[in-house]
Amino acid sequence: MKNTWKPKNNRNEGIVLKKVFIFIFAVVFVFTAAACGNSNNGENSNKGTTSGATETSTDKPAAKKEKLRIAYHPNMGGSSAIITGMKKGYFEEQNLEIELVKFTSGPPEVAAMVSGDIDLGYVGHGAHFLAVEGKVKIISLDVLSKAEELMVRTDSGIATAKDLKGKTVATQLGTSGDIVLDLALKKEGMTRDDVKLINMDMAGAVSAFIAKKVDAVIVWAPYSVEIKKNVGNDNITVLANSASFSDEFVFPASWIVTPDYLNKNEDKVLRFLKGLHKAMDYRAENLDEVVGYVAELNDTPIESVEQEVDTGVWLTGKEIRDLFADGTAKKWYEQQQQLFLSSGKLEKGAPVEDYVTFDLMTKVSE
Amino acid sequence: MIIFILAIMLITGIVLVLTSMKSTSTWLAGSFIGSMLLIVGFMFYFAKSGGLPYRMEIIFFLHTDIHRYFQYSMITIDQMSRLLSIGRAVFLFFSAGFVINVSDKIGLKQKRMLYAAVFSYAFINYLIYEPVIYDLLTKHASDEFHSAIAFISRGLNIIYVLGTLSVILSQLKRMKTPWLKNNFMVVLITYVNLEIIFLLFGVFSPLQVSHVIPTNHSFLGTLYYGQTISLLHWYVIIIGSFLLMIIGTMSLWRYNKLIGQIGKPEMMLEKKLRENNMGVRIFTHGIKNELLAQRVLIRRMKHRAMNTEVGTVDLDAMTEQLEQLAQSNNQILQRMDELYRTFKSNRMQLKPTSIYHIYNDVLKKLEEEQRSLIITNEFEDQFLLADRPYIVQTICNLLSNAFDAVADNESNGRKRVVSLDCYQAGDSLVLQIKDNGIGIEKGQRQRIFEPFYTRKNSNTNWGIGLSYVQQTVKAHFGYVRFESKLGEGTTFYVYLPIYKSKVQG
C-alpha cells in the first residue's frame, strides 16, 4: 500500500526551506518598515531645512539646487513654458531643480497639490474655480487658450448645438471642456440637463468618440488633433470652440501654487516665476524649437504639436507682467469667475485679489 | 510591475477555486479578486488622470502600450470610482470571511451572524463611495465634510483590518499540531501581505475618484512620490507579494488537503485500503486452508508413527518434534483467527467515550515495567465517539512499537523515554505517542502502514500492528501521522474528532 502523505522527513526539509524563506522576507519587511521610518524623518528634516536653505541660497547662489515638483499637462499649453525653461537652463539660473509630474486635467492635480505633494502646477482655465474656492493661488498667466472644441461626426446629422438635445456628450467635468459645453448649450437656450453628459477623461472620450459610443465630445488639443486624424477631417463638424466665445470671454491658463506652500517658500516661488517668464519670452520667439521640446517630452508627433500652436496665444513674460499691472488680467479673472458663478460651478465668489498674487508679480521684474 | 501581481493573483485565484473544494480557498480567491479590482481601478485612474512620477508609471504599467491601453479605454470616471469601491468592498467581505471561515473558535451560528455583519459593513462601504450616492451625500458639502467621511472611513477600515489580523493570529496561536501550524503560518503571511496591498490601494490611496477632493489624495506623496515609500520599497512589496502569493496559495492548498483528511479520509486512501482489506482476507483465508490441510497431514503422520514397530525410529524424538509442530501450527491458527476477525468484523459501536477511561484501560493493559517507564501529561477530559476496546488496542499497539523501539537504548547508553500525551488541536483530540528509540528508516516510512510489513523478525510479530491502528483510527473518523528521525525517535499522532468536551457536556 502506498501512503498518501509523503515521508515526514521530506516535508520537514520543505518546512525548513520555507522557514528560511519566510525569515528572509520578514527581515526585508522589517528593514523596509524601518527604512520607511527613517526616510520619513529624513523627509521631515529636509522639509525643515528647505526654508533655511532658501534663505542661505539667496546669499550664496552656488548652494545646492532646490528641488521643485511641478505638475504639467502633456500638451503644448501645459508643457511648453516649463520644458523650455528646463532645456534653456532658466531654472538652473535660479538655483532650482525641476521634477515633472504629468497630469491630464486640473482637478486631480489640484487635489494632489493641496495634499502637499506637488509644489506648483499648470492648469487650464476650467480648473480655475478651485482657485476661487481658495484651494490654490494663481501666480501667473500662461497661454490664452482656444484649444477646446465641441465636435460631432458630420454624418451623424447633428449640425448645430441645438441638435444635441438628448444626445450623449462626453467630456471631463471640472475642466475647460465643461465650460465650453455650458457656453455652447447656453447659446441655444439649453442646459446640460438637455443632453446625456458622460464624465470621461480626454483619452477615454477620444476612444468613445472614435468607437461611436458617444455622439459628441468636447476635447482639447492634442486630443482633438487625434480625433481628426482618426475619423478624418472631412467627417468632423466643430459645433463650437473656445474661440466662438472669445468676444465675451478670455480663457486663461495659469500657474498655481497652494497658499501654504507660497507662505513658506515665497522666495522659491518667485525664482520659479522669474525662470518661467524668461522661458515664455524665449517660447514666443522660437515656437518651432519649443514644439520640438514638447513633442520630445510627451512623446507625441511633431505635426500634432504644431497644430496645437494655432490654438493658443503665446504671451511673453513681459506681456503677462503688463497685463497684471494694468488690471487686464484682473478683469479676465473676474469675467471667468462670473462664468463659473452663472453656470453654477461656484456657489459663491471671492475677490480676485484673494487668489491672484498681483504683488508677487511686481517682484518678478525687480 | 504591478501587472505581475495581478497576473499571479488571477492565476492562483483560479487554481485555488478549481483545485480545492474547500471554502477557505474561495474566500481567499475572493480577497484576490477584491485586490485586483482595486489595483485595476487605480491603473485606470493613474493612466487617465496622470499624477504619477515617471518611475512610478513603470511600477504601474511596465510598458507604454499597457499605459496607453488603460488611458484610452472607454471607462467613465464614475465607473472607475465604482471599480475602486466595489474592489474595496469585495476585499473587506472576503478577507474577513476567510478569517471567520478558518477560525475554529467561532460557533456555526455565530459564524453566520458574523458573515452577515461583515457583508453589511462591506456593502455600506461600497454604498458610501458609490458615485451616485456619494454625490447625493456630499452635495453642497464643505471640504471638511468630505475629509470627515474619508477620515472615518479610513479609520474604520484600519480597525477592521487589525481586527481580522488579530482573529487570524489567535487562530494560529491555538493551533498545536506542528505540520498544520507550519502550513497555516505561510497562509497567514500571505494574508498579511494581502492586507498590506489593501492598505496601500484601499485605504491610503484616494478612496474615490469621481469627486476630486484634496483629502482623497493626502497620502499620494507618501505612497507614490517617494516621500516615505521609495521605489525600492515598491520593488520589495511587488516581488515579495509575487512570491508570497504563490507560496501562500500552495500552503493553503496543502493545508486544505490536510484539513480535508480530518473529516473525510481521502478517496484514494480509502480505496486503497479497501483493496488491501480484500487482499488480507483472501490471504488469511488461503493460509488458513493450507494450515488445516497441514494439520490433517500431521495427524496422519502422528497416527502412523504410533503404529510403527519399536526400534526402527526414535519414537520419543519424533513425537516431541511432532508435538512442537502441532503447537506451532495451533499458534498460527489462533493468530490467523485473530487476524481474520480483525479485518472481518467491520462493525464498530461508536459511543461517547471518555478519554480518561480509554487512558485507564491502556495503562491496565501495559506490563508493570512499561507502566513505570511511560510518561503522561495532564489534560482535560474529552468525549470521543469511540469503540473503546478497539481504540485501546490501537494505542497499545503504538505503545508496544514504542517500547520495542527503545528496547536497546540502555545498551547504547541512552535513557528509555516513551510518552503518551493528549491535547486538543482545533476540533480534534491528538494522542501523541513519542519515543526516543531507533527511529524509522527513510525507505521504510512509506510502507509501515502496509499489512504484513514488519521490520521486527520474530514469530510473535505479524506486522499488522500499524495497519490495525490505521484501520481503526480511520473507522473513528480520525487519521494517523508520524514523524521520525533515525536514531532519535519516532512520534505518532492519532487525530480523533472530539464529540464534546467535558465542560460543554
Structure description:
The complex is a heterodimer of chains A (366) and B (505). By secondary structure, chain A is of the alpha/beta class. Helix content of chain A is 52%, strand content 16%. Chain A contains 16 helices and eleven strands. In chain B, strands 1, 2, 3, 4, 5, 6 and 7 form a seven-stranded mixed sheet that branches. The two termini of chain B are 56 Å apart. Chain B contains 18 helices and seven strands. Chain B is α+β, with helices and mostly antiparallel strands. At the A-B interface, helix 1, strand 2, helix 4 and helix 7 of A face helix 2, helix 9, helix 10, helix 11 and helix 12 of B.
Oligomer: heterodimer
Largest sheet of chain B: 7 strands, mixed
**End-to-end Cα distance of chain A:** 95 Å
Low-confidence runs of at least 5 consecutive residues of chain B: 262-273, 457-462
Structure class of chain A: alpha/beta
Radius of gyration of chain A: 25 Å
Give the DSSP E fraction of chain A (strand runs of 2 or more residues): 15-25%
Element string of chain A (H = helix, E = strand): HEHHEHEHEEEHEHEHEEHHHHEHHHH
